[in-house]
Design brief:
Structural class: alpha+beta
Order of helices and strands: HHHHEEEEE
Distance between the termini: 49 Å
Largest sheet: 5 strands, antiparallel
Number of helices: 4
Mean pLDDT: 95
CATH class: Alpha Beta
Number of domains: 1
């Protein structure tokens, strides 16, 4: 029997012990970092319903028709490969309830590197952590290697 696959979120855990319970709706990620990791895995595994579910009500895509957003998510996920993720920094929720995660998402489209660094904002909606917004930068736009950034040094 082949070994269980590693989780796409690069946690080092097997998928079934990492992001699978979140994708199957058996559990909610306990914090913003786990949600961000599970969303990366959802892109890699084309779990678009999960991506929709984990958008915060304040996210602009929530104002669009769900079927349209799901169609676009499905197309985007199918067009890309997601070979790995590096979480560089995280911040617990501030006084306004916003938690932040800084990560380097390795993404490829037809052999072209589409990787990016993003500072993401998350907020709990009463049920679980949800993605609110993000500010992304391409590695070539950064003054230092992506993995060396922190939330404090991420370009404004």
């Amino acid at each position: 029997m082949p070994p269980a696959p590693q989780c796409p979120c690069s946690s080092g855990l097997r998928y079934r012990q990492c992001c699978a319970p979140y994708h199957r709706g058996e559990a909610e990620p306990p914090d913003a970092e786990h949600l961000m990791r599970s969303r990366y895995s959802a892109f890699a595994l084309r779990e678009v319903a999960y991506l929709w579910k984990t958008l915060h009500p304040d996210h602009p895509d929530r104002a669009r028709p769900e079927a349209e957003a799901l169609r676009e998510l499905r197309a985007s996920a199918a067009a890309h490969q997601y070979p790995g993720l590096v979480v560089m920094d995280r911040q617990a929720p501030d006084a306004s309830g916003v938690a932040r995660v800084l990560f380097f998402a390795k993404v490829f489209e037809r052999g072209k590197d589409r990787s990016f660094v993003e500072r993401s904002d998350f907020r709990h909606d009463g049920t679980g952590w949800r993605y609110v917004s993000g500010v992304g930068k391409l590695p070539r736009e950064l003054p230092v290697p992506p993995e060396s950034l922190t939330l404090a040094t991420f370009p404004k």
